[in-house]
Specification:
The protein has 131 residues and is mainly alpha-helical. It contains eight helices and two strands. The two termini are 23 Å apart.
């Protein structure tokens, strides 16, 4: 699986998150997508335990209710949690997500979706159909 990072800091912190979580398997796509988003935003990197519990392996849902993060980061966090849970519990609407995010965070959101749903492999199958 090829993972595209916004910058070296994003990649370094993503790798640290994998280590903190006992080097999870890359097949755990929901957790990979979550870590990818959390590693991509400085606010999340500064206090990762506020967003994810490394002991229980679960997200910290109360963080969304506290309301003390920027609107862009709130939207991205809702996306991260929905990708992690595999359902639309936090209403991370695609239109709202991409209209309100800057270039960097849109890149992170799009790549997290790609990672979560393994779009890279699906693309190859689609290309074969049209060849």
């Amino acid at each position: 699986m090829k993972i595209l990072f916004w910058n070296n800091e994003h990649q370094d912190y993503f790798e640290k998150m994998l280590e903190f979580n006992n080097n999870i398997d890359y097949d755990d796509r929901s957790r990979i997508a979550l870590f990818y988003i959390l590693a991509g935003v400085e606010e999340f990197r500064n206090d990762p335990e506020k967003y994810y519990n490394f002991v229980t392996g679960m997200i910290e849902r109360r963080t969304l209710k506290e309301g003390n993060i920027s609107e862009e980061n709130y939207i991205l966090l809702k996306l991260a949690y929905d990708l992690f849970l595999g359902r639309n519990k936090y209403d991370a609407a695609i239109i709202d997500t991409f209209i309100k995010l800057n270039k960097e965070k849109s890149y992170i959101a799009l790549n997290a979706i790609r990672l979560r749903f393994n779009i890279e492999k699906k693309k190859k199958k689609i290309e074969r159909i049209y060849e």
